[in-house]
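pinging the channel bc i need a second pair of eyes. not urgent but kinda urgent?? the chain im working w is below, pasted from the shared doc
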Amino acid sequence: MSKKNDEMMTGVKVQKSRTDKIFDFFLYTISTIIVIVMLYPMYFIVIASFSNPADVSAGNIVLLPKGITFKGYQKLLEYSQLWVGYKNTILYAALGTVISLVVNVPTAYALSRKDLCGRKLFTVFYLIPMFFTGGLIPTYLIVKDFGLLDNFWVMVLPFSVITYYIIVARTFFNNSIPGDLWEAAQIDGCGNLGFFFQIVIPLSKAVLAVIALWTAVGQWNSYFNALIYLRNPDLQPLQLVLRNILISNQTISSMSTGAAAVEAKQMADLIKYAIIVVSSAPIMCMYPFVQKHFNQGVMLGSLKG
């Protein structure tokens, strides 16, 4: 940074030393290797999803697809339940994101206020479930007692309070919303609700975007809650639908014999790769547009509250 500042102030380009050039070479080399290691598995899955499954099984697919075929995608699209899963996941992600913001952000703001009576007690109250939970069976019984089993709302209501999101938002409010702003608002006759909705929320777009993105990604990838609490196929999210499709095709291949078994195994592998692409593509396409918010979210969570 100092060299860049010197260049900007003096207008003279600073010549890098040999040590700096060697360091940059190793830095770029290691970074390139890491990028290749991270990206190649995803690239392989994409090309394997429309390559000849026999070539994939034989290890003949390295950089380019061979024997291009879209049978895996065609077979996958034949499942009408796939579109039901997509619709449910979009609804769960959208509604779950809204509910998460409505529940966690006001809580975080309240905990950030130093004049809140019992502030430390409430903070401990939220922190304890973050480390200690009642377990799956007690949670299942509570969900059942509330009548949420096999219900649309079981995917968005019972698990909407997330302590980590509250901590991140509280840290943001503590570091970004000065107390003098609240005093000035009081002088102008602004109350608590007016200050929160008219001043705090417009100034907190960064943390709102971070929590919304985390929640949406979590809802998109969620399948365990649906596996435990949902039995109605019309309510199952995409991830659970794809899991069921994958298991059914693996079962068919294991029950077949001879040439039929080989063909079924190859089709199951082809569908497996197509499932990974179908389930991951929407989030991966969205990520480049929201990357800066993810990076900012990491910084928000790293600050001391």
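so Residues 238 and 244 are 10 Å apart (CA to CA). and DSSP finds 14 helices and no strands in the chain. — does that match what u expected or am i reading it wrong
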